[in-house]
Every structure is written in C-alpha cells, then in structure tokens.
Design goal:
Helices cover 33% and strands 15% of the residues. The strands form 2 sheets. It has a 6-stranded mixed β-sheet, sandwiched between helices. The chain has a two-stranded antiparallel ribbon with strand order 2-3. A hairpin with a 2-residue loop joins strand 2 and strand 3. The chain is α/β, with parallel strands linked by helices.
C-alpha cells in the first residue's frame, strides 16, 4: 500500500533492463509461479512508506509486465543507460532528475533491484525507519557473510598458499572471528539532494547498514541462483513439497560457494570490473 502525506517523500525505483549476459531475460523468467520482476513489484507495492513506485527500463516487454503488475513506467530508459558499462549512479540520477524536471520532487529514492526476490515489504519499511531514526543520507542493506573473509585471499600464478592467511589467523577458529557482513544488493536508499549534488554516497559516516537474514539475501546473478530462489520462495509460501530446513541450508551453501567463485573471478578481472558494474 503506497503511502502519502508524510513530511518526507520516498520514491521507490526498480531498475530492470532487458539485457543480461549470465541469465538472458532474467527479469522476465518465472520463479515460484510468477516473473522474477513481479516479486519486487509486489513487495514494493505492499510497503507502507513509499509515496510512488516507478520502473526504469529500456525494454518494452518488461515495461508492459510492470504495468500489468501495477507499477508506473513514466519514461523509457535511454539505451545508453542500459548497457553493460552503464553505472548504477547514472540510472538512479536519470530517474530522479527526469521526475524533478517534470515538477515531481522526492526527499529520498529507494532502489530495489529485481534480482532480490526474497526482500519483503517489511524490509523496505524497516530500512526507511532506520534511515529516519538515524537522520541518515543513505541506508544500504547487508547480511552476514557466508564464510569468514579472513579465510579468503587471492592466489599467485604458481598457486602457492604460502601467504594465503594473514598473520595470526591460521589457527583461529571461525567462531572466534568477529562477525562480518557483505552488501546483499536488496535495498539502497539515498537522499536525493545529495545524490544529485555529489553522486552515489553509500560508504561514509552518514550511511548506515540495514541487516537482513541470509535467507532473504539471495541475489540472482547466474542460473543456479534462480533455482535457489525458487526453493526458498516455495518454502516461504508453505509449498516446499517436503523440502526442509536442511535442504535449504545445503542449497544456500551451494549458492555461497558459487558466489565466492564468481567474486574471485571478478577480482581476477575475468568477469569485468569489481566496482560499480551497474544495476539492472
């Protein structure tokens, strides 16, 4: 239920381009009974703190799907902002500034990637509550890491493990290491005035973390992620057909291993740059 009439105005923005290399047309693919994109639309439409929800896309089929599910598509995204090299900053600024040019102004923009289908409407509202409580410029969602980052490192060409562990880590038990968190890609909230003035600003003293459980933090980046999401969404809906917590945890472990492999490939430059690869 989209809200209105509050002191702060929040724009919900779903970026969903047509192109995707690893999972072609992923925003339209069926997951647990409906298109991937529809899970984010339905969560956002149920959230109580969003004043308006829009879809930014370059793709007519995605735009039509969005409209059928009740989301506004006030403009089509320029092709130049839908390429593999387009940045998330450019996509968000384009949406906020395009609405501002037509006289529609917001205090904050809430970016909701369709690749996070398990993020709930309560997550959206709670992240906004955190932002207001902290009087923050930005809030970014995170979750616990799947494995201690102290156990990860790059490898030299000869594959030597000689300097794999940092000093003092080798014999430390995992339960004795501090909790570590990672970005999960589900929610990004930015103060519009600062966004338009300074650009994306999600890592400074005015930014705070909204912590989500790992089971709601799956991010669709490759075909296996779709299978994991289907399993988790069916479980959430009580349609797991006998799939218990143990199977879900195994699935999450497999997904984590694949994610770690993917992240390592990005660090090595195999799958493109690590920083600012752009939202959908």
């Amino acid at each position: 239920m989209l809200g209105n009439g509050r002191p702060h105005r929040f724009l919900g923005l779903i970026p969903a381009r047509g192109g995707s290399k690893r999972v072609p047309r992923k925003n339209l693919l069926p997951v647990a009974g409906k298109p991937l994109l529809a899970w984010t639309i339905d969560a956002a439409r149920t959230a109580r703190r969003l004043d308006r929800l829009i879809l930014s896309t370059d793709d007519e089929e995605i735009a039509a799907l969005g409209r059928r599910h009740g989301v506004d598509v006030p403009f089509m995204r320029p092709r130049g902002l839908a390429s593999d090299t387009a940045t998330g900053h450019d996509v968000v600024v384009h949406a906020v500034s395009t609405l501002a040019d037509s006289g529609e102004h917001y205090d904050y923009v809430v970016v909701l990637q369709p690749t996070s289908p398990l993020r709930s409407h309560q997550d959206i509202d709670d992240a906004i509550t955190l932002l207001l409580d902290k009087n923050a410029d930005a809030v970014v969602s995170v979750c616990l890491t799947d494995h201690p980052p102290e156990w990860s490192n790059t490898l030299p060409d000869d594959l030597s493990m000689r300097e794999f562990f940092r000093p003092g880590i080798r014999n430390v038990r995992s339960q004795d290491l501090p909790a570590s968190y990672r970005l999960n890609g589900a929610i990004y909230i930015y103060r519009c005035a600062r966004l338009l003035r300074d650009g994306i600003h999600d890592m400074d003293e005015e930014t705070f973390a909204y912590v989500m459980p790992r089971l709601r933090s799956i991010d669709i980046d490759e075909p296996l992620d779709l299978e994991i999401a289907e399993l988790l969404l069916q479980r959430h809906a009580g349609e797991g057909h006998g799939r218990g917590d143990h199977e879900v945890e195994i699935a999450m472990g497999v997904a984590a291993a694949c994610r770690q492999r993917h992240d390592q490939r990005r660090l090595e430059g195999v799958d493109g740059p690590v920083a600012d690869v752009g939202w959908d």
